[in-house]
Amino acid sequence: MGEFELIRHYFAAASCAQAGEGVALGIGDDCALLQVPAGEQLAISTDTLVAGVHFPEPADPFLLAQRTLGVSVSDLAAMGAVPIGFTLALTLPAAQPDWLQDFARGLDQMAQRCAIRLIGGDTTRGPLSLTVTVFGRVPAGLALTRTGAQVGDLLCVGGELGDAAGALPLVLGQQQAEAAVSEPLLSRYWSPVPQLELGVVLRGKATAALDISDGLLADCGHIAAASGVALLIEQSQIPLSAALVAFAGEAAALQCALSGGDDYRLAFTLPAQYLTDLQQAGWPVRVIGRVAAGEGVTLLDAQGLSVPLLRSGYQHFGSASD
Ligand code: ADP
Ligand code: MG
Prior knowledge:
With 322 residues, the chain is α+β, with helices and mostly antiparallel strands. Helices cover 34% and strands 25% of the residues.
């Protein structure tokens, strides 16, 4: 199968590649054309996933597609943006019909879930690698950024942390667990669901936000640095899932939540006045700490004493600890 037939059959024909709101022209020309409503800004983000670095090889193509797109769209959620479209740059060792079929199905399912359209891409031969660029829209001036956290704000997260990192031994086939434990953990790794609705609801309320990809401590460090404040995290308030605690034990579960990464949940700073309404409306807003004057991230134990931090997230270049 040639490059053009492959693109046409598996991607241009996918239901997520059909016309949709905000897409004036999709796959097939030299560029796609997007329509951004007046008064809105275009939010753009790119992520690359490399086999053996970001996911184990061989990986289930259906799940790999879900993860690739979910991880990218999560950046739109973190800005409070609404998805419009995405491009897919796919580097493949070979064109295997079964693999492509399953990959396209996984992509379609996640695209549907996020209401985002496949608008173009590139297809090349080489070691398996996937690059997704997402495009979204957000009313001008309302994007959630990492700057703006104010002393006195609450520090919140959009739900339980650590599941994806805790799932790694399951992902790598090093350990097994009963379905009630392994299924929720594996699904948090392979099919992260971007918190798009939460991002939109937080517009004009959260003072700073991001999605947790490198681990809570490392990512909170980004908010602290960008906003010029200190973030205090109460260890006892970090939400952990029952499945993770059952699988890894309390101490390892906490470590996964603090430094594991791959959560793709939102972390944000919020003036306290908004908390009750958001929680009563059913939004997953969990308070884990607060913003103070100073710098950096401090973890506090039940007595309010600072807990020494060992490592703060994964980095591709340089050492894992800093
Ligand atoms: P060009 O040579 O102009 O860069 P290509 O031959 O690479 O165009 O691609 C033809 C069309 O197919 C373009 O619209 C491109 O965006 C799209 N395309 C290529 N690869 C993919 C892919 N993996 N997924 C979706 N669209 C793709
Ligand atoms: Mg091209």
